[in-house]
Amino acid sequence: MGHFVWWIIVGGLAGILAKAISPGTKKEPTGCLPTIVLGVLGSLLVGFSMQLLGFQGEGGLIPTVIGATIGAVILLALARKYWK
C-alpha cells in the first residue's frame, strides 16, 4: 500500500510539473486523475529506460520526481504529435 501512495504522490508532482513546462491547449484532458496518470506513466517510462541502460537503485524524492517529469514531458510531446 505504501508504494501505491508513493506512486500517486510522485505521479501528481511530475504531472503538475510536466503540464507547467508544456501547458498545451484547452482541448487536452485536465484534472487530478489525468495529471497523476501522466506522471506515473512518465515515471515508468524513465525508470524502464534507466534499467535498460544499467542504472539500478533508489535515487530519493528529488531525482525520482525529476525523472518522472522528464518522462511525462516526453509523453505529452508524443501524445500531442500523434493524437491530434
Q: Brief overview, please?
A:
This protein is mainly α. The chain has three helices and no strands.
Query: How many beta-strand elements?
Result: 0
Strand-and-helix sequence, N→C?
A: HHH
- Write down the overall mean pLDDT: 80
What is the helix fraction of residues, given as a range? over 70%
Q: Between the first and last Cα atoms, what is the distance in angstroms?
A: 37 Å
Question: In percent, how much strand structure appears in the residues?
Answer: under 5%
Task: Describe the structure in your own words.
The chain is mostly helical. It is 75% helix and 0% strand. The chain is built from 3 helices and no strands. Helix 1 packs across helix 2. It is globular, with a radius of gyration of 13 Å.
Task: Provide key terms for this protein.
84 residues, mainly alpha, 3 helices, globular
Topology:
Elements: H1 2-21, H2 32-52, H3 61-82
Helix pairs in contact: 1-2, 1-3, 2-3
